[in-house]
Amino acid sequence: MALKFRYFIFHINISKPMENTWNRCVPTGLEEYAGDKQFATTLARGLELLHCFTPERPILGNSEMAHMLNLPKATISRLTYTLTCLGYLTGTEYYGKYQLGPATLSLGYPLLAQFTIRRSARPLMMQLAKKLGCNVSMGIRDRLSMVYIEVMRATSGVVYSHDVGSTHPLLGTSIGRAYLLGCTPSARESLINQVKIKEPDQWERYGKKVLDNFQEFPQYGCCTAIGEVVPDVQAVAVPLGRIHGIDVAAMSCTFQGRSLDIRWLREEVAPQLQAIAREIT
Fold first, then answer.
1. 52, 106, 135, 162: which has the fewest C-beta neighbours closer than 10 Å?
2. Is the pTM value of this prediction over 0.90?
3. For 131-157, what is each residue's pLDDT tens digit?
4. Cross-sheet strand order for the sheet of 89-91
């Protein structure tokens, strides 16, 4: 009995390896790294998941984080399980909801300890805060935001979110604008271009004020923000330049609940802030 065989020929293009589309699935905002073989996608996913938590969003579930990061829910479930095992997340009284764990705090402390300038600046910052009745803050950049590494406040009655570790828009704050002026021209241009591409709304909202600050800086030696992020908040800031070779930093005085007055900020507050900056750098 004759046997008939059917031969199936599979055409494989060996000149171009198959792409692992799963590894190319990066969180929202990191699309530029998709396909980068040196980029640890799983690590990026875990770190971006931790970034989902904010003072306004202290408790989140897997579905919410999947939507925020544009990642499959199954991926988020594995990440939250792993981060919980390691102490970076902890469960809550709400089933399937998480909040940041103690390991997240301990991870940040070694970085703060590197900024030894905080110790020398703290008494001067507190003295100025009490004298003017304001918050005096020192900040550095976290991607396209400013993060505070030291905050001294005169009173506890300020509602505006202002504490060590809190973040605010790079372009929308006086401290962010002062930071940019502490950068080299090429670094400043690069950051502004990143904002235009990645956060066009931030540029649309604050871009003109930023350019006005840059133009006025040679005359006043400071940057200002008047009711731009929060209507009754005004601030003035000065650049500190590089602090102990670690990063560019800036310092600001922030006021809430008093009449907005840019002239007063420039002529009365800024010189006192500049004096502290000269003393600690």
1. 106
2. no
3. 999 999 999 999 999 999 999 998 766
4. 60-61, 97-100, 89-91
